[in-house]
Amino acid sequence: MITPTPTPNPSPQGGGEPTEIAAALSIKSPPIEPPSIASLRSAFTDRVGGAAEYVVIPALAVIAALGAFGVFAALFGRNPLDLYFYMYQGAFGTWFSWQNTLSRAAPLILTALCTALPAQLGLVIIGGEGALLMGALAATSTALLMPTAPPFVVQIAMVLAGMTAGGLWIALSGGLQHYRGVNETISSLLLVYIALAILNHLVEGPMRDPSSLNKPSTHEIGAANMIGTIPGTDVHWGLVFGIVAAILSYILIYHTAFGFASRVAGGNVRAAKVVGLGVGRLILIVCFLAGAAAGLAGMVEVAAVQGRTNANLAAGYGFTGILVAFLARHNPLAVIPVAILLGGINASGGLLQRRLGLPDASVLVLQGMIFISVLASETLYGRFRIFRRGI
Amino acid sequence: MADASIGWWVVPIAVLGGALRVSTPFLFVSLGECITERSGRINLGLEGNLVMGAMCAYATSYLTGSPWLGVLAAGGAGALLGLVHASICGLPRVNDIAVGISLMLFGTGLAFYLGKPLIEPTAPILPAIEFGWWSDVPQVRAALKINVLFLIGVALAPLLVWALATTRWGLILRTAGESADAARAMGYSVNAIRMRATMLGGFLAGIGGSFLSLYYPGSWNEGLSSGQGITAVALVIFARWNPMLCFWASLLFGGAAALGPALQSVGISQGYYLFNAAPYILTLLIMIITCSPKRTLVGAPAELSITK
């Protein structure tokens, strides 16, 4: 009987690292001799086989979930083939749907980073939605406080305000975990509800635009302050923000001493302390950056889509972002294609509603199925011979 | 008029009544989570069970006309979600916290999907017992109108304390929670124990959900639960995995959640949304005060991933 062995810090991405280390050791251990064809081939499978496992298994998990969703739709009298056709059409079938997909992928990349970055430290942060809302509020307030400033200055200020607000929100969770031992998963989720309450309070009260009757909202930030779309497309600049943030995160995590220290601390806190790493400082900085990404998503949603803050902002991007991060195995670069995939699924919801009469929540059901399937697939790592190293 | 004569007393009476009313879902979810966690596993997905339970209860009550069948259906749906959680967590190298998050999203999504046609119709709701017959004040009467589910929950808490402490079942459950190796050495399957504990926990959380749709607020809509499930999970930590303390904590949280509506009833609507956040703020504050980075919590099951 095998059960998960107790580890001091349950890290969702931990599955990969010991095997990587083991692989590194096994390469180093034989005495130095001229490379033979066989050893070159095994070195090749070492690298490609290991990487392929991280692509093939999640892909199989997504396919299994899509299959389950087809069965689910069939139970409600829909033809699964129609379902897949419309999903493809709504997500990637036309240039129009591609633009819709990419616009939705933008906030998903950023909110996924909010879960993926702390995961390097072994923290499970699921409060991206809260950081997004705080970022949106801060960005909107900043724009409203600067009515006469030139748009470029306002936009820069909005970015900084949104990132700071979101960053502090998640840094609070990280700090509480490190300094008070408060579980970060629960605290970050509680902070989502607190952020939502603050947003509702401000939008219905002090910051309310009296002319917004049906949907209480703040005043608009003004058309001049909107960040606009990438030339030649209807996709807003948020996508570029997201991709740049993901690439920077990747460089930070995998190509800097700071990122290395974070991963060491994520693997083993005690070891990190022994070698003198300031774990508290690492947690605060990484959580701040994570929250800043989600806060930027909030700023983007205000400055590119909504134009003001209201309850529409709580559209669940923060929660879908958690799924994106887990599906990407917390790799900031993998977050980009996965966010596009999930953005596509979100985008296809409208078409499913119109053509097949499925409720809008069907997207949530599919997301839940993918999430469950991906987590269950964790158990498959290292079980397939094809991916074995050095065979 | 009685209304004028009791003046500001309206607020504490409404908070008390609210505590008795609003606490029920907290109570059931936290008792369920308590059982699951004592077996050494954490199920963060009870928010999903709560919403799914609320939807199933409402649908069953609407279709059959019997709210009590609805309560059973809610429990069944919760137990099924618990079964899914336990089956996936039983696989090697799967993280129970992440599985909980996924089931929270799946459960709410599925409930919203299946519950779309239920937003309009009205279903028969659960009965309540009038404990306020001795009073002339309508507010006191309203406050002391107590639902039967709450009374069941009140009875369940001491029963669980007793069962965990003295019965064979309780001992085996706690052994699995304190040391999986010891349970295995005694010849028990840790996975099977935890699966039963997770299903029972899910069952209770589902019943907590039935209270939301079948009594208070007493209808089905997508905004029915806003984090009561996750608050209740946090509450178990605060209650030190003790069912009786879960009961008192649920009352406290129910009172906090009732503060906003109580103040609104006397005309203070300023900050209504902030008062609605009171249970979450309270949870966070309590966790900050009672947790410590230096030691594991007193009473924490040793096998629990969240406190290790």
Explain what the structure shows:
The complex is a heterodimer of chains A (391) and B (308). By secondary structure, chain A is an all-alpha fold. Chain A has one domain: ABC transporter involved in vitamin B12 uptake, BtuC, CATH 1.10.3470. Chain A is 70% helix and 0% strand. Chain A is built from 14 helices and no strands. Chain A starts with 15 loop residues before the first helix and ends in a 15-residue tail after the last helix. Mean pLDDT of chain A is 87; it is low at 1-31. By secondary structure, chain B is an all-alpha fold. Chain B has a single domain, classed as ABC transporter involved in vitamin B12 uptake, BtuC (Orthogonal Bundle). In chain B, 70% of the residues lie in helices and 2% in strands. Chain B has helices at 2-6, 10-38, 46-64, 67-89, 96-115, 138-143, 148-166, 168-178, 180-185, 190-214, 228-238, 243-265, 272-276, 278-290, and strands at 128-130, 145-147. In chain B, strands 1-2 form a two-stranded antiparallel ribbon. Chain B is globular and about 65 Å long.
